[in-house]
Amino acid sequence: MPSLEHPYGAGGRGQLSAPRLRTGTPERAGLDPTELERLTDDVHALTTGVRPWAAGAVVLAGRGPVVAVAEAAGWAVRYSAYDPKTDNAVALPPDSRVPATVDTPFDLASLTKLFTSVAAVQQIERGTLGMDARVGAYLPEFSGAAAYGVTVRQLLTHTSGLRPELPLYDCPDQRSRLALLRNTAPTAEPGTYRYSDLNMLLLQFVLERITGRTLDVLVHEGITRPLGMTATAFGPCPGAAATEDQRRPWAKVDRGMLRGVVHDENAWALGGVAGHAGLFSTAPDLAVFCRALLAGGSYGPARILGPDFVELLFTPPGLGFALDQPWFMGELSGHGAAGHTGFTGTSLVLDPERDTFLVLLANTVHPRRRPADSGPRAALATRLARAVV
User: I need a surface site. Which of 53, 69, 187, 292 has the fewest CB within 10 A?
Assistant: First the structure.
């Protein structure tokens, strides 16, 4: 039984503090070392070859408060450009490349949605946000969603009926971007599942309206600062792993090779802080986030949610979190596993039943985006599932 580091949690008198993460052997974590060795070998294999799955990758896995794997492979920056004439990456000279390390920050892409979701559930816990309240009650000027009675719950469960995205990046200014968002109505019947970035964008505006604070401040004050996640923030993040040589026609805007600025074109158009994308983080920081949720919302003396509200996040169909999705969770799915993926190559999986977590950060879009392939994500998660003793 791990020792407790503080007699009371931040949630109030009498609440025990949750143990902090520590590095330990697979055996100490109750994990099979042979399977974990295979997991680390697999990560290195993903970053080798002429056309690797990712230029660089970092994996961090553990069980309970023990981190049993923390491995970096490949390059944070490997290429200077993409050449469409030859369909080849333009590699940097070896001495100009930047190796990936366990502490390399990555563009989280849609893992940002998890933080927006937690920020929303924090307001639900405080009674300032109604789960089944209509978005129009908070944002009457968002006439499209208001006319269809879209609710906060529908935003969190991707059942608003809103289209997957809008071309905000093509709008000439912020005023026209906001007008496009405000006037957008569902294109499917509300209650119908359709994954959409717009859900988290509208949720961002709801949170900012009811709190009077911007999303980056809400995430910092409510999640990352109390948990000590000092490497997690919205960009710019100059030391981050590079992403894409972003140019038309494969991308939606012409921005060149990106490093330290958000990859998602709509998040970029909105200034880098968006409910669906924009956060940068490291694997160790995300492990803390995982551990806090697995421990019922507490980490050390800090509490970001009460246990009942963490359970609410993970109650089917999940609030912001995807549940039991074998296409990226592999054999970790099937027991109430929760997590998400990000377009840049990131993923996060929590398995509450087995008290395990897996963080994978990669720059699969470096030097350019390709058709999505989550097979490696699922394979690594399966390695961890098979390692559970």
Answer: 187
Helix (H, G, I), strand (E, B) or coil at 116: helix
Whole-model pTM: value is 0.95
Domains annotated on the chain, with CATH: 22-116+216-387 (3.40.710.10)
Q: Give whole-number Cα distances, 121 to 1, 172, 238, 346, in Å.
A: 30, 34, 31, 23
Which residues lie closer than 8 Å to 40 by C-beta, 6 or more apart?
A: 59, 69, 71
> Tokens standing for 177?
């971007």
Which distant-in-sequence residues (6+ apart) come within 8 Å of 290 by Cβ?
Answer: 348, 350, 357, 359
Q: Is 72 helix (H, G, I), strand (E, B) or coil?
A: strand
User: Could you report the per-residue pLDDT of 131-179, keeping only the tens digit for each?
Assistant: 999 999 999 999 999 999 999 999 999 999 999 999 999 999 999 999 9
Query: DSSP H helical segments within the chain, as ranges?
Result: 26-29, 33-46, 112-126, 135-138, 143-147, 152-156, 174-183, 197-211, 215-219, 225-227, 265-269, 283-294, 307-313, 326-329, 375-387
The owner of tokens 């816990």 is 125
Query: What span, in angstroms and rounded, lies between the C-alpha atoms of 93 and 362?
Result: 21
Contact of 156 with 241, CB cutoff 8 Å: no
pLDDT bucket at 16, cuts 50 / 70 / 90: low
Predicted local confidence at residue 66, as pLDDT = 98
DSSP class of 4:
P
Q: How far is CA 323 from CA 219, 327, 329, 335, in A?
A: 23, 11, 9, 9
Q: What is the dihedral of CA 215, 287, 369, 263, to 10 degrees?
A: 20
Q: Concatenated DSSP letters for 320-353?
A: SSEES-HHHHGGGTTSS-EEEEETTTEEEEEETT
Peptide bond into 249 cis (omega under 30): yes
CA–CA–CA angle 183, 189, 194 (5° rounding): 85
